[in-house]
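Training component of the fellowship. As part of building independent skills, the fellow (R.M.) carried out the full modelling exercise for a liganded target. The chosen ligand was tryptophan. The inputs are recorded below so that the supervisory panel can assess the work.
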Amino acid sequence: MATTATPSTPDGAPVPDSVPKQTKQTVDPYNVTGEVGADGVVKAIDYNKLVDEFGTKKIDDELLARFERVTGKKPHHFLRRGIVFSHRDFETILDRYERGEPFFLYTGRGPSSDSVHVGHTIPFEFTKWLQDTFDVPLIIMLTDDEKYLFSDKKTIEEVQGYCASNVKDIIAIGFDPAKTFIFSDFDYVGGAFYRNIVRLSKHITLNQARAIFGFNESTNIGRIHFGSIQGATSWASSFPHIFGEDEKQTVGIPALIPCAIDQDPYFRMTRDVSARLKFQGKPYAKPALIHSLFLPALQGPGTKMSASIDESAIFMRDTPNQIKNKINKYAFSGGKVSVEEHRQFGGDTSVDVAYQYLRFFLEDDDELEKIRIAYENGEMLTGELKAICIRELQKYVAGFQERRAKVDDDTVKLFMERRPLKWGGNPKAPVVVPKVVDGEGAEAAAAADGEAKMTKNQLKKLEKQRQAEAKKAQKAKEKAEAKEKAAATAAKEEKTEQTEQTADAAAKEA
Ligand code: TRP
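Fellow's submitted model of the complex:
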């Protein structure tokens, strides 16, 4: 929630408007800024403080060691470098993976513009890696409704347009269509999903929503309600075409949500409601979370990249030349003012944007460490560091553009169709709780096409009827067979008798 310190000068006089106001750091789904000091300078976001305030857990070496033991995979460099730095109940997910119990991945994007930048792709890159690692279903939500509700100007048509292009950007990350379902709220709300949205909204009071998100009396009620939509996507029972219609089973399947830390309030709220909700005596699984920090804007730590400020970000449609110019011109440098001074004192990698970007985009730990040492001891100059950063970003963006060019409308349809997904889970511990069998998924898919669909109970009844009828038919068949057999035997006996008689007669004649 946004908490703003009352700005004042040391003598208590009100601050004139021209002086930047001193504020605490703000991180919620709608605002992200670092603390503004008395000098008016924005500080880097203090992520440790967020862990304390939000009540999450830091990802430590012990957890990473366990991750490697359980999955047999070296933790992603985002995990190794503290870019994905905090979690809720990630251990529980590892327990389930170890035991072959189902869970799924859930992440999303608010389609607020069609200018996707590298800051947007970070959580998706990590999500793809998690999907490859765990081999589980992934659900990607596009909150077109959210972006309409939280913008003063955007029309529904506009956000739907962004949605259509954002889906292609997301697909270009490289998700596996066999295990990924992408939906937009305007399209998917209804049915099982809407029932869950309403279950969630019924358990959140206005007071709670205000405390979590900082709403007030003038907030439109769509915004106040929106959290229940983002939250209800955490429940597997919102997706019967993937997890089956048996809610008693599906309410127990948790989501693992990779997201930037600003999204945590939605899921704190959902976890709280999950703990209080039951379906026919079976509790709802609380979603687990794994949080990433923000890719800083080119201007430095303390803000994140903005889609509406061209100089703040590297966009996925930028040309190699634009990338080069932006980094050279805008990337905040931790180097010293003169070459002499830099050689003598070295640069500060903790604020240097080019170095910070390399932590995200340069996978090789040894190379990164060499760069850090060389820059900090003054051997490497800012221009050289920026050149490496430019090279890596050009490579990353070019790879994306190549894949993006191949995504067409048919690919989009494939990902957004309501259909069963196929996944394997832990090869050492095959999933023990039944997945949807193809037949049930096909039912759900048929329903999506507007055909009449039966509920689980109706299906059960029908199956019982079918079995009873089959039994009856079998009995009748057996009876008929027995009758036939009896008749055949009788006929045979008669025939034998006749034959014998004929033989007798012949013998007599002879
Ligand atoms: N609210 C998010 C945004 O504006 C989109 C979103 C929906 C999301 N569900 C999510 C992000 C789950 C991360 C995880 O971008």
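The panel noted the following from the submitted structure. The CA atoms of residues 319 and 394 lie 8 Å apart. Residues 29, 106-110, 141, 143, 146, 230, 257, 259, 263 surround tryptophan (CB under 6 Å).
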